[in-house]
C-alpha cells in the first residue's frame, strides 16, 4: 500500500469522528445556553474529535475491522457524553 492509499484509509477512518465533532458544538448552541465556563466551539470540537478517534480505534482493535454499527453507536454515545460534560452547568 502506498502513502496515498494509506492516507486515504486513515482519513476515511476518522471522517465520522470529524463530522460529529464539528456538528455537536454547533447544535449544542441551539439547545444549551452558553455559560461562562463553557469552552469555545473549537475546543469542544477538538475534544469531541479526540474522543471520537479513540472510540473508532478501539472499535477497529476490538472487532478487527472498521465500519461496525456497534462502533458507530459507541461513537455517537461517547461524543454526546463528552459534549454534555463540556456544556453542563458547573455543579457547586
Automatic annotation (TrEMBL):
Alphabetically ordered keywords of this record: Membrane, Transmembrane, Transmembrane helix
Entry annotated with the keyword Transmembrane: yes
TM helices/strands, residue ranges: 13-32, 41-63, 69-87
Domain of life: Bacteria
Official protein name in the record: Uncharacterized protein
Organism name: Simplicispira metamorpha
